[in-house]
């Protein structure tokens, strides 16, 4: 599998990268970890003339404490995010999701920003990022802008990032003390999720005070299950109560039908996984 | 002269030797075909049809020819007769309908992925780039895709895979025990069972699988020497040479085929491929070395697939569960062409449906059908996994009907160990076996009774996670094959194997085998055999294979034949060396040949301490200074062995699964097997074969399926959608052996290469069905996906069809730059 020939640049600053993007416009593609882009190029599903590599821009890498939120640099690898103590402490849901993401090789190359910019509805990071109320920071010729989570994912493989912009970081509000679980339903270990549910909850005693639930592969974008979140708030963390709330999860979703399951089956699985994820997040799994 | 060698401290046979070939294979130091680079070598890229069935109306190669560093672009018409043809070696019936199979068709493509033009360039990348520029106009034709519809097309006026043939049916092959005189009349048995016994009627699907060997296929052709040399990642260098000569007119003596180290095959490289033929023709035409290495996508699309059958089965039994007859009616999907073994695959299964049992009446029929999909051929087990699946699923159904434990129903019907040799209802003579012993051992390892108790407890409790126990026994005909039997089945070649032993001057030994290893560990196992028999150190034996210039005679590796046929040839060649050495030893020791004993690598004079090692004799023969009068100065020997019978390994496999009834997810809990493969040469290699085989068989039960959409496009065209398991998906297997030495070869060995694959598929599916049988389920279509299991539980079906669409993880419209 050999990609078509392309020119390659590896700028060392975001400004240089933006300049290259401005210069080559539609003929260019950004490469982060290459774990999604390279297969596309090698299968010749796309043939950009220019590939702009963000790999040498140090400022895009790493996790910082931003006060009430964490700042995850777009070029931080899955492996590094997954092992980061700040992420574990303040956004446990992301740590949990990454343990299920692909295999060790892919986690060492693929990046947090690349996965989110790729916007595969079956990607494992969209639902946790949405559930935690993340804000996406992009930089373009006119400076930076912040995109709220709800507006970031537009459609299958489509985000609110403009062609002349780069995703630089993701701001994740801290969820200290929240329990978390990512229930990924697959047939074999290294598969994208057929359906996955990201849940994080704050308990007060035996009561679920607040819950955040995100859905993977239940539509053309990652989804937030607001109805379930509302139904959970103030309910006891019991199997019955959680099951009642989880039953609402599939309403309004539009999951795909493919050889791993049709839409109805996915709706059913989402219900089961939601119950399990919430109970596990509440330490009752 | 005194005895210089201690007797071998430890026998080599039966020893856990680490594989001597692994050092070079695992570190990548070896020469895989794709690593070969020759001076002036050109690279090929194939232009492939996106359509399952279409007329080629024009091919415009001009833009591609103008591509950078492109040497030429050739079509089937350009190559003409020089491209030869892909052969079918086994027309299963006299009047088999066999479509012509040109490596590059000139007017019509019959499956998606078929090559219509080849680009030759100075680099592989440039060849690939130019391939995009070849403009092919197609006129799409309706495609025959559904096996059942295709089988009936000649009557229903349905779509034909090859319109000129007038039918999709290539052959109907039949066996009937009453007609053959090997058993009774199956229809009578069925009528009686319908009246007063038990009749189990089922239809099972053997889904299409892709062999998915680790090394994609690759071929290098060098036409610059006196012999044209072909390196190919093939299982069958000797058969490939024959096919090249037979179809291109190049004399066999002008062709040298080398299978260097080959990274797996599982039957998938038991083929004479269009790509090999095209590379051969292009190299000859240009007079330059060429290389073609397929991508994984090309491999999944065009390397032959396996299985793909519908099985209609009728099992007749008494009320007590004694089987009185079995009737098998198969539809086998051969894909677009009849491949090299092709329609022979279901026929290989024909003799195995009666398995380890004493059925009094048996009838088998296969209808071999052409469709516009990739061709099918041998895949690990070839016909026998399909057969074993059918009968072992039926035996479980019979047990459920009678209301006894599945092991008990098998015991009521199997051949007892005192009854060997046993002639079966399919007319084969089983050499040896002990099903009672293997089953008892497997049960003990499994903790069968405790697991049954847990199952009952979970059922009683209505646990969301149900436990299922699956049983499968198996036997298979190994060691393909007695040439006379092959002849009687109309197969195009024999089944012998060849070996040579060369005693080198310094005392080391070169062994040449006609078996062509591609990952099995022949070099280690064969070295152990020679070391033991000849009494030389293991390290002093070198195994040479896979090059027709070195190993001029052979029939290659498949069908669990290398050890039982190739190993026997080796034993006979070694024995000849010893017999040639005996008079030399007598001469040098000044003793009578009759007074010499050979053991531990030395000839000794009975009752004395006088002796001489075979390696010393080799040196003396090399010098040839002092040999018996008239003796030829050589110990080298060869043997060609044609087996007189197959041999019949067997085993009992037990599997426990947990089924999550809420989701349909199946989790392996425990897997044990006790196989009887006769005498074991190297337990470590055997364990590797069994483990790998188990995973492949389990994968058929749970994960793998090649799926085409309604246009004939392969949906499972990458490993994103064709679910190949990894170590993370399996559990620790517990394996053991009982030993009933084969009586058909001198080492007492039986084949093991296919054992794990054959037995594990039914063991797993039986376990899944067993877990949910109390919920009204008696079948689940393979692979038992969570969705199918869940649907079976919820609507009592067998799970139904899967949706023919892939998950689109790689955006095809991304960026708009196309
Ligand atoms: C074998 C395999 C298994 C996988 N399994 C999973 C899995 O189970 N779950 C899962 O979630 N993912 C999985 N992935 C995908 C993996 O997570 C990828 O790493 C991820 O989707 C893309 O990240 P990347 O850094 O490699 O991005 P790239 O492939 O480099 O880029 C992806 C896309 O995003 C764009 N892009 C990248 N960075 C930016 C940026 N900063 N600003 C704007 N646009 C940008 C690129 O132009 C490209 O279009 C798997 C991948 C492979 C190869």
TrEMBL record, chain A:
Taxonomic path: Bacteria, Bacillati, Actinomycetota, Actinomycetes, Propionibacteriales
Keyword Oxidoreductase (UniProt): yes
Transmembrane segments: none
InterPro entries, alphabetized: CO_DH_flav_C (IPR005107), CO_DH_flav_C_dom_sf (IPR036683), Diverse_Substr_Oxidored (IPR051312), FAD-bd_PCMH (IPR016166), FAD-bd_PCMH-like_sf (IPR036318), FAD-bd_PCMH_sub1 (IPR016167), FAD-bd_PCMH_sub2 (IPR016169), Mopterin_DH_FAD-bd (IPR002346)
Organism: Nocardioides caeni
Protein name: Xanthine dehydrogenase family protein subunit M
Origin superkingdom: Bacteria
A Pfam family recorded for this sequence: FAD_binding_5
Keywords assigned: FAD, Flavoprotein, Oxidoreductase
Keyword check for rRNA-binding: no
PANTHER family: XANTHINE DEHYDROGENASE SUBUNIT C-RELATED
Domain FAD-binding PCMH-type: 1-177
GO molecular function: FAD binding; oxidoreductase activity
Automatic annotation (TrEMBL), chain B:
GO molecular function, one term: oxidoreductase activity
InterPro entries: Ald_Oxase/Xan_DH_a/b, Ald_Oxase/Xan_DH_a/b_sf, Ald_Oxase/xanthine_DH-like, AldOxase/xan_DH_MoCoBD1, AldOxase/xan_DH_MoCoBD2, AldOxase/xan_DH_Mopterin-bd_sf
Amino acid composition bias (Basic and acidic residues), ranges on this chain: 13-22
Name of the protein: Xanthine dehydrogenase family protein
Sorted UniProt keywords: Molybdenum, Oxidoreductase
Residue ranges constituting the Aldehyde oxidase/xanthine dehydrogenase a/b hammerhead domain according to the UniProt record: 27-142
Cofactor(s) in the UniProt record: Mo-molybdopterin cytosine dinucleotide
PANTHER family with a match to the protein in the record: ALDEHYDE OXIDASE 1-RELATED, XANTHINE DEHYDROGENASE
Organism field: Nocardioides caeni
Region (Disordered): 1-22, 796-818
